[in-house]
Amino acid sequence: MANALYHWVTESTKSHVLHGKTIEKHIGELLKEQPLTTGGSLVVYRGHDSDSRTIRATSWFSTSNDVKKVRRQHISKGADCCLFKLHILPGIHVIKVDEVLDSLKSKKTGYDESEIIVEGGHTFYDSDTLIRPGFKDTGLIDGVQVFETWYSPKGKSPKKSPKKSPRKTVSKRRVLAIIENEYEFIDGVEDLKVSVPPSLEPGEIVNNATYNEVWKSIKRRKGMTSKGGQRTRKRKHSHSSY
Description:
By secondary structure, this protein is an alpha+beta fold. The chain contains 7 helices and 12 strands. Helix 5 (172-178) packs across helix 7 (208-222). The chain starts with a helix and ends in a 20-residue tail after the last helix.
């Protein structure tokens, strides 16, 4: 468990495989071992690019309790979007990364981001009344668009109409834009199939031919040979990181 968490902080993505399981799976299991949040809400922050104004919590996601670090390290200089302020309500598993690594006697990562990993599967609400799912637009604060939300295990979002949304095939350009900051972590088509879907809109699909074309483009940009290339950890992710 300590190895998986250390790898996540220093050099891997959710789809990276360690000891036969993905990092996403390892950390999901570690989350379940943590005590549930209690008492008042835990306030954390997360930075996104301007084309991602919601948080998809189908899996665990990363945040920080230090807003200054989030603004400095995860929002591009000069960008006006987006910063999320999250109230994590009681009854949710979280990993306070630095504390857990210390307790597991892991070696030091060399990173200081006050990272807190939050389990997925719960509901975001636009106020503390927990009535309407969503995000409250609080406008610009210090030049950055801020959204506030209350993340609660109480209830699920109302079921939508059984009517299916029209399916839209996503272009190669759209896929490249989604993973433009993650080229170094993509090692093949299967990595793309894990990394891209969480950032798609409802009804959007990517066909196999497009995935193959995107992978060819990434290989060209990375200057990869048939043996591939070596990755290095880049701490800013546009969608998978906070």
